[in-house]
Design brief:
The chain has four helices and 14 strands. The protein is α+β, with helices and mostly antiparallel strands and 190 residues long. The two termini are 28 Å apart.
């Protein structure tokens, strides 16, 4: 299969869409982010990347706390809104029902079925972005997205972003069990 060099602008396909919350200048603020991932098992760490001039970045630096809120497809309009407007111009918190866990400066979005509050442990300054790494202090989920005490992705119904086409996508069908479906290749090598 032939490959064509398409340049350097590479995106991970797809990227999970979340809302990052913090307190900026004493007020709750939220922004949409898709550059987010788990980066450590124990302690559980989450990394979020955002622009150096983001109002939310300013708040994370001020408070050293933030939340990661995983929306379902039902919150797509709210999530997109929070990515369109700027927290230094608009009070985005007016559109969400805020709740707090143990961290006062990490407001969470009640409408999002899965949320986590984090304490900042490291900031990496990149040429145009910050990479904030936070230790998870608490995870909150609605009963509606749980099956046998675990998050059920089918019930959560998260969505993802693709770039550079800037499109939201819902998840497709389940393919199989991780660390299992590849066993057929192991057997064929024996």
């Amino acid at each position: 299969m032939a490959k064509k060099n398409i340049g350097k602008n590479f995106n991970v396909y797809p990227m999970p869409v979340v809302m990052v919350g913090t307190t900026t200048d004493g007020k709750p603020n939220f922004m949409t982010a898709a550059w987010v991932t788990r980066v450590n098992t124990e302690p559980p760490l989450i990394a979020v990347s955002m622009g150096l001039k983001q109002h939310t970045a300013k708040g994370i630096q001020q408070t050293r706390q933030f939340s990661v809120n995983v929306p379902s497809v039902d919150q797509a309009e709210l999530v997109d809104y929070c990515g369109l407007v700027h927290g230094y111009q608009v009070d985005k918190s007016a559109h969400v029902d805020i709740f707090r866990g143990s961290l006062e400066s990490a407001p969470m979005v009640r409408e999002c079925p899965l949320t986590a509050e984090c304490r900042l442990v490291q900031t990496v300054e990149l040429p145009k972005d910050y990479l904030f790494i936070g230790e998870v202090a608490g995870v909150y989920a609605t009963e509606a997205i749980m099956t046998d005490g675990q998050i059920d992705v089918g019930k959560l119904r998260p969505f993802v972003l693709t770039m550079p086409d800037n499109s939201y996508w819902s998840l497709g069908e389940r393919l199989g069990d991780a660390w299992s479906i590849g066993r057929a290749l192991i057997k064929s090598e024996q």
